[in-house]
Amino acid sequence: MICKKSLTLVLVLAGCLLAAGTTFAADTKIGIMNVQKIIVTCAAGKAAKERVDSKMTEIKATFKEEEDALKALQDEIKKKSTAWSEEKKAEKVREYQKSGRELQAKTEDARFELKQMQDKELEPILKSLEKVVEKFGKDKGYTMILDAKNGVLYFDSAVDITDEVTKKLDEAMAGK
Fold first, then answer.
1. What is the mean pLDDT of residues 123-150?
2. 39 contacts 130 by C-beta, under 8 angstroms
3. C-beta of residue 24 within 8 angstroms of C-beta of residue 17
């Protein structure tokens, strides 16, 4: 995705372009959209969210039994520790700590798995969105389309100053 620095640069560029001349400014058309909202509200995004939520519910259910067993062991330690020998108490505490670490590791693995699933679900949606935005921008005559949160999604190559700025940077760096 596009970083906030690029959004700032684009906004500065857009301001400069608009200030550069009324002829160009009259032809400048900039659109702002909220990609996050599009993903959450489009049919494919809703279906992907349902699949991810279903997997999350399934994973949570598998952890419920382990969490309950860990809680039961904790309660047992609290209730019976005064009656146990120091050796038995230490053994139960180690067992509790080991089970807690194992559950925590499984939880982290599950989070990673869910994140991978979410990325896999979003990838085709984002690729399609990129094509749709590019076509929409060209068809509707936009100079730029910006994401409200992440920056440039489409721009007319006529406003791309990359090559010129690269030359100027090379010139500036040549003396150093």
1. 88
2. no
3. yes
